Amino acid sequence: MTTRFVRDVADSWRVSYKQNGYPHVQQGWVLPPERKAEFDPFILMAEDWFKRGTFSDHPHRGFQTITYVIDGRLEHIDNHGGHSILDAGDVQYMNAGWAARHAEEAVADDLIHTLQLWLNLPKTLKTMTTSYQNVYLEDAPVVPIDGGHVRVYSGDVAGVTGPMQSLVPITMTEIQLREGATYDHVLPTNHNAFAYVLAGSVNLGSSATPLEKTDVATLTFDEANEGESTLSITATSRAKLLVYSGVPLREDYIAHGPFVMNTEDEIRQAFRDYHAGVFGPPAVK
């Protein structure tokens, strides 16, 4: 019987927040962009509280986003006629590909609270057609566990498959536990992974590292091992956390403004294309 790799916390930190005023009320970096080399295939994660008018019509190229709604209603508008409203617990996956142009707005007078993760695309997929997928709360399978449950948005986890159709292999899981409950979360060993505590407190990994609400932890992994690994989670109070994982791409890239490409020339070309109208008309209803 093959022994599973046992995960531990590689590093951890507490998110700090900026008070921006109106309409982008508050922002924090869950995964700080200046540390992006550590997070491959992930680039950054932003936590935002915002009113309508913060993220109106804007372009993207060369990467993917995964937006998780914590509270409020998020209105999606794109310039291909797409329109949807997402509520708490819903997720939108966007493959920006070659030329995305969209808006992410709070509905009416809502104060929306979201987490947006940027996920890199390999060089061979950066010119793909743009696509969007909404993963509604009720469509993500839920697996009961002792002392809680696991909701799977992406990947093969806990015997179920999440509905998110990512272009690169990732997992995204929301885990809720009662106080005192322990759960061994199984992930592919070669996935780089991190956890973010949304509520309560947990002890994480083989070292039982204590984490509380707004704490982030990157996890140990073995990139050369294609087996399975376990991450021990014990709730020291009623807790909710998100766990993300993905296979590193190991490609050099540049993230500049709304674009993520492999060279400076490609970044400059993206800006030229946007101003020349290649991305199409504005994203408005």
TrEMBL record:
Q: Start and end of every Pirin N-terminal domain?
A: 48-119
Which part of the chain is the Pirin C-terminal domain? 173-280
Q: Which Pfam families match?
A: Pirin (PF02678), Pirin_C (PF05726)
Task: Name the family.
Answer: Belongs to the pirin family.
Q: What is this protein called?
A: Pirin family protein
Query: Which source organism does the UniProt entry give?
Result: Exiguobacterium alkaliphilum
The beginning of the lineage is: Bacteria, Bacillati, Bacillota, Bacilli, Bacillales
